[in-house]
């Protein structure tokens, strides 16, 4: 079977500008940097700020307890983290897992990264890791068939639970 090719040269400017913008060289303020500047609060969704990292609620969670861990410095690529930033980032990620474990008593947890738009990152301009609690059998027909997620609590409740758990662990892990 031969592979047919067709030219779409008219898309060159779009592809070039989208890639440039996603790498932080184009217009627009980073939503994560704006949240960090707002500080820890239920309104911002920021749960904790460490020396080089911060933890924030995912505004579009896969499930209750879904948080993001980000470096404070605006960067898109994990390779750009300095050693001190990487150490703090992964310690913060570890404490986020501990906090959701205390807050939710899940059967397990997902920790993951979508590095770049092609890998599924919704906001590829600012590196972030996902942490979310999981339970045996937590995927139901609504997710499987209805392409809908049912969240049993508000983001304000999630913020309160995870912040309380985070604060109970302060100093133990970082």
Structure, described:
The chain has five helices and five strands. A hairpin with a 3-residue loop joins strand 1 and strand 2. The chain is globular. The protein has a single domain, classed as HIT family, subunit A, CATH 3.30.428.10. By secondary structure, it is α+β, with helices and mostly antiparallel strands. Helix 3 packs across helix 5. The model has no long low-confidence stretch (mean pLDDT about 80). It has a five-stranded antiparallel beta sheet, sandwiched between helices.
Question: Can you give me a brief rundown of this structure?
Answer:
With 174 residues, the chain is of the alpha+beta class. 36% of the residues lie in helices and 15% in strands. Helix 3 packs across helix 5 (155-169).
Taken together, the total number of domains comes to 1
Low-confidence stretches: none
Beta percentage is 5-15%
The third-level CATH topology is HIT family, subunit A
Give the overall average pLDDT: 82
Output the number of helix runs.
5
Percent in helix:
25-40%
Radius of gyration: 18 Å
Biggest beta sheet summary:
5 strands, antiparallel
What is the H level of CATH, i.e. the homologous superfamily? Answer: HIT-like
CATH class: Alpha Beta
What strand line-up does the widest sheet have? Answer: 1-2-3-5-4
Structural class: alpha+beta
Number of strands: 5
Distance between the termini: 57 Å
Give helix and strand order, one letter per element, not per position.
Answer: HHEEEHEEHH
């Amino acid at each position: 079977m031969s592979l047919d090719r067709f030219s779409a040269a008219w898309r060159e400017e779009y592809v070039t500008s989208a890639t440039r913008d996603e790498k932080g060289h184009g217009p627009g303020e980073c939503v994560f940097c704006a949240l960090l500047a707002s500080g820890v609060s239920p309104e911002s969704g920021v749960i904790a700020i460490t020396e080089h990292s911060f933890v924030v609620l995912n505004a579009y969670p896969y499930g209750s307890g879904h948080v993001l861990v980000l470096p404070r410095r605006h960067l898109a690529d994990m390779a750009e983290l300095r050693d001190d930033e990487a150490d703090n980032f992964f310690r913060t990620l570890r404490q986020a897992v501990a906090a959701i474990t205390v807050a939710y008593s899940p059967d397990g947890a997902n920790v993951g990264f979508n590095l770049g738009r092609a890998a599924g990152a919704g906001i590829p301009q600012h590196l972030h890791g996902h942490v979310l609690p999981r339970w045996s059998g937590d995927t139901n027909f609504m997710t499987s068939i209805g392409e809908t997620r049912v969240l049993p609590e508000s983001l304000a409740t999630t913020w309160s639970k995870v912040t309380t758990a985070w604060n109970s662990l302060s100093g133990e892990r970082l």
